[in-house]
Structure formats: structure tokens, C-alpha cells
Amino acid sequence: MPSADHYAVMSTAVQSMLLQSGEDGAAGTIVLLPSWPCSVDVSFKLWGPLNTSVEVVWAGGALVSLDVVPAARRSAVVFAPCNSTASAERAPISRAF
């Protein structure tokens, strides 16, 4: 039987591939898909800094939907450039959606 610790490590690693806190500390920037290959579809809902919920659907190398709660925190959400091993390309970090 596998150890529960292995699941926890895997879960944390996948979450870090999908969402990370920015380097600005108290400002609470949320970086989405920092280590996720652009060619891999994903749908998730995770909590970020400053009690922010982020729900994302990424499919076909493009953003399908983004829901940020509270809505006032949407300006703090940025996308990381595509993972270099992915076939699709994502624009450099940008606040424009």
C-alpha cells in the first residue's frame, strides 16, 4: 500500500506547477501555469495569497475561462511564459486578459 506522504508530495508539486505566489510578497501577485506545459489541457480551482480563489480552464493552448474571487484581485493574476518543453506558446507574463 502506498504511503499517504507520497500523495501529499505529488499534490503539492502539481499545485506548484499550476499556481505560485509572485515575488512581490505583500502585494499578493498570483502567477498561473508557471511550470505547466502549454500543450496540456487543465482545469483547476486553487487558493492563492490574500484569500483569493482562482478557477482556470486551459485547453488547446489557450485560456478558456478565468474566474477570480474576489473580483478585485483579478488584476493581481498574471500568466507565466509557456514551459519550454510545450509545443504551444503562451505570451510573456502579462496582466492583460
What is shown here, in short?
With 97 residues, this protein is an alpha+beta fold. Helices cover 15% and strands 33% of the residues.
Describe what this molecule looks like in 3D.
The structure is a single chain. This protein is of the alpha+beta class. It has one domain. Helix content is 15%, strand content 33%. The protein has one helix at residues 4-18, and strands spanning 19-21, 30-32, 42-48, 52-59, 62-69, 77-79. The strands form two sheets. It has a three-stranded mixed sheet. A hairpin with a 3-residue loop joins strand 3 and strand 4 (52-59). The chain starts with a helix and ends in an 18-residue tail after the last strand.
Features:
97 residues, alpha+beta, three-stranded antiparallel β-sheet, 1 helix, 6 strands, globular
DSSP helical segment count: 1
Secondary-structure element pattern, one letter each: HEEEEEE
Portion of residues in helices? 10-25%
Strand order of the largest sheet: 1-2-6
Our Rg estimate from Cα atoms comes to 14 Å
CA(first)-CA(last) distance? 45 Å
Question: Segments where pLDDT lies below 50 for 5+ residues?
Answer: 84-97
What would you call the shape? globular
Largest sheet: 3 strands, mixed
Q: Approximately how much beta-strand content do the residues carry?
A: 25-35%
The tally of strands reads: 6
Give the structural class: alpha+beta
Q: Mean pLDDT across all residues, rounded?
A: 82
> How many distinct folded domains?
1
